[in-house]
Amino acid sequence: MIETAVATRELTFSQAINDALRLAMRRDPMVIVMGEDVAGAAGRAHLGLADAWGGPLRATRGLIGEFGPGRVLDTPISEMGFVGAAVGAAMTGLRPVVEIMFVDLIGCCYDQVINQAAKMSYMMGGQLTLPLVIRTAYGTHGFKRSYGGGAAAQHSQTLYAVLAHVPGLKVVVPSTAYNAKGLMLAAIADDGPVVVMEHKFLGTAAKGNVPEGEYTVPIGKAEVVRRGTDVTLAGIGRMTHVCLEAAERLAAEGTSAEVVDLLTLQPLDEATVLESVARTHRLVVVDEDTPTASMARDVAARVADKGFDWLDAPIKTVTAADCPVPFAAVLENLYAPDADKVIAAVDELF
Amino acid sequence: MAAAAACAAPDTIAADLAMASPASPLPPRERLLWMYERMGLVRELEDRLKTLVERGVPMGPVHFYTGQEAVAVGVCAALRHDDWIASTHRGHGHCVAKGVDVRRMLAELYGKSTGTNRGKGGSMHITDVSVGMLGVNPIVGMGTPHAVGAALSARVRGTDQVAVAFFGEGAASMGVVHEAMNLAAIWELPVVFVCENNGYAQATPAEYALACDRVADRAAAYRMPGVTVDGQDVLAVFAAADEAVRRGRAGGGPSLVECMTYRFHGHHQGDDTLRYRLADEERAARDRDPLPLFRARLLAEGFDEGELDALDASNRARLDEAVAFAEASPLPGPEELLSCVYVDSPRTAGAPA
Question: Chain B: residue nearest A170 by CA?
Fold first, then answer.
């Protein structure tokens, strides 16, 4: 998997994304970055003000200093316009990495994503490539607090299912600094549109050793991140960490849980999930998204269809509650899946 | 008065605009003949399609360009082969004017594997990137930011290509068009926004939907020049487009050119226009058919009638050949259902790389 890795150093998830963008921009002058405040203080360099934000998660900080405003484009608040411009740029030779600040804003540019970018290759009979990367932050805060302070219903959603649903888009959800960098480089190298979902909590919370050079983590491959024999826990993004926490506690109770990190939602790596279920005979899918028409139920349906004979118990899903994301921390904690809920689901299988 | 300007009969508009039209020198003879030939080819294509559709050949929704030929041809006459256009749902004229092969267009409409889009797009998605035609686009207004992106691409790659964003006066109410204009303006990109104001968004009159006298007035909000021209006069369209294209190519940023025009047929095949347009208005508009207007102008300039007739005959022959090509072409095989969903999806033999 690692192609040119030599030295490593500890980076956060967002620093790893930054590293990937920097390396890709150094190698290929056609790679550009655009979005709201990807630098910040646009046009004020003459006042000594530049790179005020570097993106909401600081993942693009420093890029404008190295690559200049010609390739690091701060945009006005006009998602439909600038995502559309990124589509047009990708149609005509660039490899844009466009940022939608939060996935909740997808409604402001949904046509450009699902009707334009996603369908170009197919409806134009394969006559063009569309090397477009859409980066977007998602998710609840996911840490225990006793009072308000979460981002509530319009800045905490997951929404990757409404993207994975659309044929033509690839959707990846990294979970660690290592796979964030590798999937981002794979997304930039891909000749079609790829959505990279970056969990806003993992941006700073997920730290790990990251190789200095370029490497890719393949799109369309899940990864078994913990071996076990009694039950498979399949996680997405931050939920993979929840699964690992649950697996640790289950081990103390004598239950051996295997954890599969799905990493790519479209195209989904069915084979890795099915192979795991063939070993463990039980499956719990853990998804931060709301349950109706979700990835959790999609994975469950695929395993029910193709792996029924291996199952010793019903497939369980642990998802967010079927409601908007609430503000108060006590409610947000009830809303989102956690290790307690995963363990409760596992307990029902034995 | 605000409402009246947006819906004035085309003859009134022409008289009004004549005062504003600069008396430009005539383009070279070769260019004029190309315009004549292309306008005729668009008309011939649409006439054939209309006959075929009425005969029952299934072509899905078709939005005829008839009546608006001077806009597509006048604008594209100002472009280079390597410039780009982003089109609208009513895009056949743009395709022909930018140089898309009518045989492959016909084949696409027949849903044949030899079509521009291998039979996977149809009328509303005809695209030929090799001639800079970035796509007929039936989600109203959504092609405009693609032109902005193409112009950005030219900037980053260090070329002097220009991109044209065609849109209708109906799309002028779409937020994305305003976003695209704002982006092009703040980044000073070589984009020419061409509004084809044919007076109607489906069955909704422009004077109802637009809170401005002219769409071109909105250019002022985006710090770009905006002009309104007689869209039935191909030379007026060309003069305005040529100026805007030259400005963009020279680094002068975007422009807006509004072309007052009229669609002679319904919004799509089978649309009864007399439910929302008066017969008198339609008659007056047909009296200003851009093809005979231009032919008369060329004859007045001393062009040989036989030469123009020969171009008409050649267009008819091209359409005969195109229809024959489309009808003889193979249908897509079942393997095409799942090809090209992703850029790295398996491709069938002969698929464009």
Answer: B342
